[in-house]
Design goal:
With 410 residues, this protein is α/β, with parallel strands linked by helices. The protein has two domains: 9-267, TIM Barrel, CATH 3.20.20.10; 283-381, Lyase, Ornithine Decarboxylase, Chain A, domain 1 (Beta Barrel). Helix 3 runs parallel beside helix 4 (61-71). A hairpin with a 2-residue loop joins strand 18 (369-376) and strand 19 (379-381). It has twelve helices and 20 strands.
């Protein structure tokens, strides 16, 4: 393999156990985007038997079906948008769905009725992120209005917009207040709401077969208590900082893989707790030297002639490029590690390769191991370091690593 990823199972388990101990709550482990680039199947295999992981959260049907095949019984929530055909597959496979709008609610209700199968749904409340989400007033109207046959209102959640990028968490506090107000108003309605009876009577649905909700007044329907709504709001940052965001289950994403969500989150944690916890990165990225070239002083390297040697030099060609997820912004500013020594990238990162200077490293040859992310001896290349150089975040550095690159658990 000219390039491969290693996933340290011990580090991954350490991080998840840390959050379980820290919160005393069950975990909804976010494994979307190929488990943040770590490898979905590999991560699921490592974590599937952990008793404190109650849910996996993904973005797509494809990811959900992959997890279902491996785990069988674990609960799965798709937190991304889904079209009608995907909804059909999710409902048929008992995968839980988000409801971000009234239109999506009607669509899910119709699909579930046609399948004659209950759809388990989590309402996503719009509290300030302005992405997928249903406005609080619209949501209250749902709980005050019609009963949806074949739909089980399972969860209620939201997502923070500005909790990682700042040490001023006033906006996040405002979001939490909105969510708490919604919970306060909805829970009594939900707990006393009538439960649908799974009927196919066309008289019970708007537009005959095209609707999905009952027209019968609430007072005339059978009153039964529903299962409590599963409330969740916490992301990695809020899980580290604010216990009042935990609710019934905590969603943990980036920090489960060993990364602080941001420098601001780290600073806020230290200021708040006066202590440190150790998050251990689980991912290392390796490649091999494809060729070593001897250049004379004044020779150019790579596209655009952006780098010229100052003296005679030896250059290692690395068969990894921006197609693989090694960002083009790292051209001529990043480092790699060969034989425990850092080597600077020279010239532009190409689609499938880049070059690094190894003049100062003895006996570099074809096939030698190269560390793109990871450590050897006293040297370390972190995703955070690459993110700073590329003007992005650690999330992007790891999640954009090409999923075709082999992952192996160590």
């Amino acid at each position: 393999m000219k390039s491969y990823i290693e996933i340290n199972a011990e580090n991954l388990l350490h991080n998840l156990q840390l959050f379980s101990h820290h919160t005393k709550k069950k975990i909804m482990f976010v494994v979307k985007a190929n488990a943040y680039g770590h490898g979905l199947t590999e991560v699921i295999e490592v974590t599937k038997d952990l008793p404190f992981i109650d849910y996996y959260a993904v973005d797509s049907l494809e990811e959900a079906l992959t997890i279902k095949k491996i785990t069988g019984g674990k609960k799965i929530l798709v937190i991304g948008w889904a079209d009608r055909q995907e909804l059909k597959e999710m409902i048929a496979n008992e995968i839980e769905i988000i409801i971000p709008s009234l239109d999506q609610l009607k669509k899910v209700a119709e699909v579930a009725r046609r399948l004659k199968t209950k759809a388990r749904c989590h309402f996503k409340v719009e509290t300030g992120t302005s992405r997928l989400g249903i406005e609080p007033a619209e949501l209250l109207a749902v709980f005050d209005g019609r009963v949806y046959d074949y739909i089980e209102f399972t969860g209620l959640y939201s997502h923070f917009a500005n909790i990682e990028d700042t040490t001023d968490h006033s906006f996040a506090r405002g979001q939490l207040e909105i969510f708490n107000d919604v919970v306060k108003k909805i829970e009594p309605r939900h707990n006393s709401a009538p439960k649908s009876e799974n009927t196919d009577s066309k008289q019970k649905f708007y537009g005959g077969a095209g609707g999905g909700f009952s027209k019968e007044p609430p007072a005339r329907r059978r009153q039964e208590n529903n299962a409590p709504l599963l409330k969740h709001f916490s992301c990695s940052a809020s899980t580290l900082l604010f216990p009042d965001t935990y609710f019934d289950i905590v969603r943990v994403g980036i920090s489960a893989y060993g990364f602080w969500p941001s420098k601001e989150t780290y600073i806020s944690y230290i200021e708040k707790n006066k202590s440190r916890i150790e998050l251990k990165p689980a991912l290392s990225w390796y490649a091999k030297v494809a060729q070593v070239k001897h250049l004379k002083q004044g020779e150019y390297i790579g596209y655009g002639l952006t780098y010229r040697t100052f003296s005679d030099a030896r250059i290692a060609v690395i068969p990894v490029g921006y197609y693989d997820g090694y960002d083009r912004q790292l051209s001529s500013i990043a480092n790699i590690i060969i034989k425990g020594v850092k080597a600077p990238v020279r010239g532009r990162v190409c689609m499938n390769m880049f070059m690094a200077e190894v003049t100062h490293i003895k006996d570099v040859k074809e096939g030698d191991r190269v560390i793109l992310i990871g450590s050897e001896g006293k040297e370390k290349i972190s995703a955070d370091y690459l993110a700073d150089l590329a003007g992005t975040i650690n999330y992007e550095i790891v999640s954009r690593i090409n999923p075709l690159i082999p992952r192996k658990v160590v």
